[in-house]
Amino acid sequence: MAHPIHEAPATIPRMTRTRLTALLLALAVAALVAACGGSDSSTETTAADTGAATTAPAEPTKVTFSYFWTATEYPLIPLVVAQEQGMFEKAGLDVEVIFPPDPASATKVLATGDSNLGLITTTDQVFATDGGLPVKSIGNYTTSNNWGLFTKPGDPATLEAIKGKRISGYGDSWTNAMLPFVLEEAGLTDKDVEVVTVDWDLPLLLAGKVDMSTNTTNYLRAGVLDETGKEPGVLLARDNGAPDVPVWVYAGNTQWMDENPEATAAFMQAIAEATQWAIDNPAEAVAAYEQAYPDNGASTKYNQAGWEDLVAYIPNADGDLLIQTDDQWTQLGDALQGIGELDAVAEPGAYYTNEYLPQR
Fold this sequence. Notes:
Elements: H1 20-35, H2 47-50, E1 61-66, H3 77-84, H4 87-90, E2 93-98, H5 106-111, E3 117-121, H6 122-130, E4 135-140, E5 147-151, E6 166-169, H7 173-185, E7 194-197, H8 202-206, E8 212-216, H9 217-228, E9 233-236, E10 248-253, H10 254-259, H11 261-280, H12 282-292, H13 300-311, H14 326-338, H15 348-351
Parallel strand pairs: 1-2, 1-3, 6-7, 6-8
Antiparallel strand pairs: 3-10, 4-10, 5-8, 5-9
């Protein structure tokens, strides 16, 4: 899945917690102790005698969150909103966002403990579980499959048009897993096409250097509309052999989550609130993202179109956020096993848990 190329900042700015009330209380206690300094032990007033707190308020829990791509993009909007609207602060969290060195490393960053929580694809999670990595999904980001093959405006995007074409990909697990479904539906194999790995497909597609691009609608459609004002050709995988399952999920390092269950649940509560706010206030959400990442490398028109498209895939059919199901993981596992990408399908509970989601 592709994105404009730009330098990612080392971190997203951290929040600071205001401690005015605690400071005034501490000063008052200090003044009282100083005033009683000449008294003997029988008349000395202590903090315990006055009922004043003797310990500083707990510091926020630090959380390192890894993004699934190598640079900043508007899918970070829920993270930005949670910081800018004070939702992380309210939850007692100090969240830092980091970026993997390459898309294939998104799960490894979590598995090694370089990050505590993160955003990965559902195929990342399946292969992580299959490989015994300590990573588990804790909430859907999106709920449907909006990945497919795209052509520039005016060119056919059909199964019949695929054979012999030069197709761009990204070397990520989602693209590698989804493309075989569409090729099989077309009666083709990877020998019938040329797949080239790229960093950003839009200029190559519009210039005719690739015939088709693999991507999600929120990226490629938004990019083509931004550049040309026209709609690209779209061949959605879910309509052509691939399972209709979520693309992205929030996931965590299982050891860290076991040691920090309250912080994990607090993070998901803040993300739920921030996501809903961003859905309800799309223009303000995009503006907050662009203010947090002024060098994000994309136009406001692109970010707005991309977020608007993505929002359509975030709630489930009941309008709920984040909730995962056994069926989505079984369906994905069975599909991957069916095309030879997975030897055995694990029980759904091996891939995910909903235990950290807000109480309904």
